[in-house]
Amino acid sequence: MASHRRPKQPSRTRVTVLTTAAAAAVVLSANAADAAPSEKLGKDEVKAKVDKLYEQAEQATEKYNGAKDKQQKLQKEVSTLQDGVARGQQDLNKLRDGLGSLATAQYRSGGIDASVQLFLSSDPDDFLDKASTLDQLSAQQVDALKKIQGKQRELAQERAEATEKLKDLAATRTELGTKKKEVQSKLAAAQKLLNTLTAKEKAALATEQARADRSATARVDLGNDSSPSGRASAAFAAAQSQLGKPYVYGATGTASYDCSGLTSWAYAQAGVSIPRTSEAQTGAGTRLTRSQLQVGDLVFFFNDLHHVGLYAGNGQILHAPRTGTVVRYESMDTIGGPFMFGVRV
Known about the structure:
The protein is of the alpha+beta class. It has 10 helices and 6 strands. About 25% of the residues are buried. Residues about 1-5 and about 10-40 have low confidence and may be disordered.
């Protein structure tokens, strides 16, 4: 006989879970539908976001350059100090050997002085502090001990200084790594955005940039009639020879450059050494207003001075703009940040 058992009802907990899951699925579907149209940005929006990321990358690049420059200087200072400590230790050893020879000669001539025996088995600072023992030493021995004492103090100071420099060097290396990661992160984010563009959109942006490049070059040719100094003229000519070279962060030529890498390289070709970073380059000469600029003067942009180029005449500059571009002419008004001031080296 068939059993007429009542069908088992789902538990209240199971019903609640299923209902919640279903509701969540509906909400997610609705959100996805709402988000879909906004996921695809237009080329102008992408360009604006990418330009901002590149600006942030350049800010980090200049800090990276500063840390790298500091690292190189500290490394040289540490090497010099360590060499000095090594030479000082050799000198100290010679002084001690000399005193030992003196004691040996004294022993052979009639027995070693008890005070010298004391010195040879203890610290000379403690020995010299015992005024009573000085009366038992010859003038030659006193002079030798004082030299040893002075050399010990000198070595202790040099070792302490080297230790501090090594700490600074370690901290700078850490900072260098942090800034490098920051640059790479910004560049990766920019590339990810650029990858969302279609081939047609990328071509349109390239066409717009080519048009802007032709316009800037034409303006330079028309307006390059100011009278730069010999050094500025030579630096500008050197920079012109690098037109078309790619921007690479941290690069100083000649295969590629970043903004301050180009300007420091260009002035080096003119026989003038200027600092490595854009911020430091602001102190390389006399500050100028826009109306005072001549070809070859340094020009600085953005409130934090993280971008620099060379004035090219007629409101144009010659510079290494950012990742994805090459050394080129550009209007001062399209850099993306305000012109701050110029500097005549």
